[in-house]
Amino acid sequence: MIRFFSKYKTFAIVLFILSAVIVTVIYSILKPKEKLPIYQPDMVNAELVDTTVQYVRKYHKIADFELVNQNGDTVTQEFYRDKIYIADFFFTTCLTICPIMTGHMLEIQEEIKDDPEVFLLSHTVFPVADSVPVLKKYALEKGVIDSKWNLVTGEKRDIYDLARKSYLASKSDGDGGPYDVIHTENFVLVDKSARIRGFYDGTNAEAIADLMKDLEILKEEYR
Fold this sequence. Notes:
The chain has helices at about 1-5, 10-30, 100-110, 130-140, 155-165, 205-220; strands at about 65-70, 75, 85-90, 120-125, 150, 185-190, 195-200. It is of the alpha/beta class.
């Protein structure tokens, strides 16, 4: 018996390895491909969503917009057509959460700077102060890469509507008027069809790590 096992030892090892490889391949083929949810307004905390869209259950997309970036160029949804992007809301003189969020955006920029699929979009929530020259100065100080990251300003009401009705990300209960301030730490992951695929705490390093993992999952959908 010992001689028998000794004689076929190599064969048994090879058979075991081959079986393991076959099982792994079959598992990989049959394993469902990981996919991110497509967020609809009724899936999000009602405090973050405008009442006009709170009960929408399907087909939600980021609305068309027309804003101006740090270079004075008009930026519309067309720029982000067939691109993945990460959006947030900030203002240049913020001394609380914004510096942390900008720091994390800079880290993301470093990761995606050579990736033709992924871009960044930051909306100022204080457009009366954040003019184009102010945004440009901020961009230069922070090391923003113009080709990858748009810092945009525009009409306050338009930005407010985007935050509440499109990105489902604002905690403000105001109406976009002169005394209303949109405030949110959320980073929003948007796919190539302008659909929301994830929300992340822009002040939390672990959440940013989750964002980067989800970004790879999302990119895999297009391969």
